[in-house]
Amino acid sequence: MTDALSPMPEDWERALAVVAHPDDLEYGAAAAIAEWTTAGKDVRYLLATRGEAGIDSLPPQECAAVRTGEQMASAARVGVTEVEFLSHRDGVVENGPQLRRDIAAAIRRHRPDLLITLNHHPVWGVGRMLNTPDHRAVGGAVLDASGDAGNRWIFPEQLAGGLLEPWGGVRWIAVAASPFADRAKQVGEEALERAVASLREHHAYLVGLGVEPEPYARELITGEADAAAERFGGRRCVPFELFPR
């Protein structure tokens, strides 16, 4: 796409970022999140899996422990201290009632204005590479659960006893790494450095991919911000596809 990107809305206080795996946010949104937390916004993470199928050389139980720890360290690099894991099975996540139920409960609990997720479309870029089933499932479930959370007759068992209440306050859903991006968050040098450090924290995962963490993370993060700048008046940015609720 070559159309100009418009700025992301900034009149919100709390965001909940919901993705499939450890490292998903680092590949798509970390620099923007660093800018938002620096500005005093409250951003929290929810991961559907613990990434246990992500490193071929590690058995799932060991891999889950490694990747959970890397995600906690990675989130801290961009100012996020609240990270939750749902423990759906990595690689075979299904967009069905159980996943929607879990995400709706988190939305009702955290009560965000903004939801952030990763590309749910069939492809990355413009038809260049197929997206993975987990990304498609979780991203699609986020779109669905954003409405479920506000309807007291969907998953009503969550409301028993008054521990949770419906939350219809989600105003936008921002999809990172979408091939249909139409908005962007400008990012400065400090935020980019923090995003590079955030991706670099996934050391075991990156080594498992056969890449050198530091140069790989730096080239990817800065390269994506530079490429997106062409559609944002020459300003480095993180692009998003924005859906209003």
UniProtKB/TrEMBL annotation:
Keywords: Zinc. GO terms for biological process: glycoside metabolic process. SUPFAM superfamilies: LmbE-like. InterPro entries: GlcNAc_PI_deacetylase-related, LmbE-like_dom_sf. It comes from the Bacteria. GO terms for molecular function: hydrolase activity, acting on carbon-nitrogen (but not peptide) bonds, in linear amides. Gene3D superfamilies: LmbE-like (3.40.50.10320). The keyword Zinc applies. Pfam families: PIG-L. This is PIG-L family deacetylase.
